[in-house]
């Protein structure tokens, strides 16, 4: 069991691209002790495991430690996408990220290879121009807003989210 716990801790650290030195500094463990924790060594105290977990933001649910590490996997995917970009490629995040979200990019390669990262919200449109254009298209009968939207009462907001996620509606509108 400790071997699996240590491996999960190691994977969580690698997915987040956190250096051993950073964990050692935050947890007051020596590099050797951290290595032993990540190896699942039985001579390490539970407190040492918990200190490393806290440094990785994983202390909240000991049982589910990195088993389904969604945040770490997302960061790993972003990092791998950035590494896979060709020269002058663009990595785009569509939609809004949760406030405080950090992306683990090695920025030196962006300078050498000329790749860029951008966020795309509302199709990268300028709302002051895009919204009047949509209204004009709707007035001309060229934008069937009634086919892509559905209104929901506030009490049905969870259903609105579920319908949006399932694709039952493109744009739920809560009124």
What does this molecule look like?
The protein has helices at residues 2-15, 20-27, 31-38, 46-55, 70-84, 107-113, 127-139, 145-148, 157-166; strands at 90-94, 116-120, 149-152, 171-174. It has 175 residues and is mainly alpha-helical. The protein folds into three domains: 2-64, 434 Repressor (Amino-terminal Domain) (Orthogonal Bundle), CATH 1.10.260.40; 70-121, 3-Layer(aba) Sandwich (Rossmann fold), CATH 3.40.50; 127-174, no CATH class. The strands form two sheets. A two-stranded parallel ribbon has the order 1-2. Strands 3-4 form a two-stranded parallel ribbon. Strand 3, helix 9 and strand 4 form a beta-alpha-beta unit. Helix 1 (2-15) crosses helix 5 (70-84) and helix 2 (20-27) crosses helix 4. The radius of gyration is 23 Å and the shape is elongated. The mean pLDDT is 85.
Radius of gyration over C-alpha positions, nearest whole angstrom: 23 Å
What is the second-level CATH architecture of the largest domain? Orthogonal Bundle
Average pLDDT score: 85
Q: How much strand content do the residues show?
A: 5-15%
How large is the count of helical segments?
9
What quaternary form is this? Answer: single chain
Structural class by SSE content: mainly alpha
Present the secondary structure layout.
Elements: H1 2-15, H2 20-27, H3 31-38, H4 46-55, H5 70-84, E1 90-94, H6 107-113, E2 116-120, H7 127-139, H8 145-148, E3 149-152, H9 157-166, E4 171-174
Parallel strand pairs: 1-2, 3-4
Helix pairs in contact: 1-5, 2-4
């Amino acid at each position: 069991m400790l071997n699996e716990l240590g491996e999960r801790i190691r994977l969580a650290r690698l997915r987040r691209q956190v250096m051993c030195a950073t964990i050692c500094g935050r947890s007051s463990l020596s590099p050797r002790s951290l290595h032993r924790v990540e190896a699942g060594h039985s001579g390490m105290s539970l407190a040492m495991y918990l200190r490393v977990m806290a440094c990785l933001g994983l202390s909240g649910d000991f049982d589910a430690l990195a088993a389904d590490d969604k945040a770490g996997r997302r960061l790993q995917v972003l990092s791998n996408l950035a590494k896979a970009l060709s020269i002058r490629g663009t990595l785009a995040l569509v939609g809004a990220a949760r406030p405080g979200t950090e992306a683990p990019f090695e920025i030196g390669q962006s300078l050498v290879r000329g790749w860029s990262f951008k966020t795309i919200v509302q199709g990268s449109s300028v709302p002051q121009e895009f919204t009047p254009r949509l209204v004009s298209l709707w007035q001309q009968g060229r934008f069937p807003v009634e086919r892509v939207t559905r209104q929901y009462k506030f009490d049905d907001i969870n259903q609105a989210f579920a319908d949006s996620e399932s694709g039952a509606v493109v744009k739920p509108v809560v009124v």
